[in-house]
Amino acid sequence: MTNTLLEAKDLTMVYGTVVKTHALKGVSLNIEPGEFSSIIGYSGSGKTTLLNILGTLDRPTSGVLRLLGEDVTKMSDLQLANFRNRNLGFIFQFHHLLPEFTALENVLMPTWIRSRNGSLKLASRAKELLELVGLKDRINNKATALSGGQQQRVAIARALINEPQLILADEPTGNLDSETTEQVYELLRNINSTLNTAFVVVTHNDHIAAKSNRIIEMKDGLITKDYPAAGMDRDVLWNEIAPVYCRHCNREISTEGTVALL
Ligand SMILES: Nc1ncnc2c1ncn2[C@@H]1O[C@H](COP(=O)(O)OP(=O)(O)OP(=O)(O)O)[C@@H](O)[C@H]1O
Predict the structure, then answer these.
(1) What are the GO MF terms of this UniProt record (predicted)?
(2) Is the ipTM of this complex over 0.85?
(3) Rounded distance, CA 53 to CA 196, Å?
């Protein structure tokens, strides 16, 4: 019995019936518990399509996706919705907070889907999470009274409330200035190391991607490169440890590409 968190095999995605777009052309990858991966690639290479399928928000045209050992491609829409709510967290570029609700209420929102009876335990967990993301003093502020970076922090706390093992994030800092981007990304890395939550993050920001454990590069609907990254410490001298063994491609690979990202 493997404890691999996510196993994707030969995923394809074709949009349209008359005019067809082959957005994914056979993508296979595994994600292990606690891993922090970034997906990078040119616009239109299939990053969001892949992320949405990995997060069960969309179904692939073909291929198999196993999450926590379960074949999710075989689940009904209702089963999928429950599975998602229990096991996955999402962070998007536009945080989709409910503007008239407070930070605390927004964080608690995913728990209302399961039960309307908000327990005291959940409320205190939501407060802890808001504290973790640095918003202890903003718990009762309405979403509209928070800055962009603060709103994204609320969205991150919301993604954590159901204690997911995997968080999928699509350009989580795409809407933020560079300083706030650094802070939010650092926060994601801290959550990753403190709670051992695995992350798969789509980003256009190579500098940010270099702080992951792993970079997955896409082109034309395929993964073209998959290699370890420097992680939090940007001062790591890759030349000293190159080449590295890539367990995903089962061979030693040069870290040349990674050096270019630093
Ligand atoms: N709902 C859709 N219907 C039809 N085609 C789509 C749809 N969504 C995406 N596509 C097409 O699929 C391909 C991959 O798109 P996708 O959004 O996954 O790329 P991306 O790498 O995330 O791009 P970006 O970096 O610009 O967000 C593109 O050619 C896009 O036009």
Answers:
(1) ATP binding; ATP hydrolysis activity; transmembrane transporter activity
(2) yes
(3) 22
